[in-house]
Amino acid sequence: MKKVHLAAIAIAGIMAIYSCGGNNTQTETSNAPATPAKVTGDAIYKKTCITCHQANGEGLPNTYPPLAKSDFISDKEKTIAQVIKGYSGELTVNGKKYNSAMPAQQLTDEEVAAVLTYVYGNFGNGGTSVTADEVKAVRGKL
């Protein structure tokens, strides 16, 4: 019984310290909205694209087309549109036919630009960059 009584006193003491502001470890909050961390194209690729297109960008044979050295992504506007609205049906990439679906990606203009810049800058694709303004323009046409 004595132990329970001592535990209750200890808890009451800790509550008193925190309620009075002494030794308060909470940080002050601001009324300003939190600024989200900038997500890199690499991080978006790893979260969104890697399952189908693989870490090396080579896709899965007969299932998901490659992004590595891909002739399909040479049309930047078409590539942006595909990321935004998705795609279903047959397409030819590097001379091979694929017939699968890619869902529309729920990404901001900045995120689409970042991930496509990453794809264009890696996997032997020549280093083209994509801007958020380009993505916004394509999104406006869809």
Give the percentage of residues in beta strands: 5-15%
The CATH level-2 architecture is identified as Orthogonal Bundle
* CATH superfamily annotation: Cytochrome c-like domain
Gyration radius, rounded? 25 Å
> Any idea what the shape is?
globular
Tally of DSSP β-strands: 2
Mean pLDDT, to the nearest integer, reads 82
Q: What about the largest sheet? A: 2 strands, antiparallel
Biggest sheet strand line-up: 1-2
Structural class: mainly alpha
According to CATH, what is the class? Mainly Alpha
The tally of helices reads 5
CATH topology: Cytochrome Bc1 Complex, Chain D, domain 2
- Quickly count the domains: 1
The helix content, as a percent range, equals 40-55%
Parts with pLDDT < 50 across at least 5 consecutive residues = 2-30
Order of helices and strands: HHHEEHH
Amino-to-carboxy terminus distance: 72 Å
What does this structure look like?
It is a single chain. The protein has about 140 residues and is mainly α. The protein contains five helices and two strands. It has helices at about 1-20, 40-55, 75-85, 110-120, 130-140; strands at about 85-95, 95-100. It has a two-stranded antiparallel ribbon. α3 (about 75-85) crosses α5. The longest helix has 18 residues, at about 1-20. It is globular and about 45 Å long. The relative contact order is 0.14.
Briefly characterize the structure.
The protein is mainly alpha-helical and 142 residues long. The protein has five helices and two strands. It has a single domain, classed as Cytochrome c-like domain (Cytochrome Bc1 Complex, Chain D, domain 2), CATH 1.10.760.
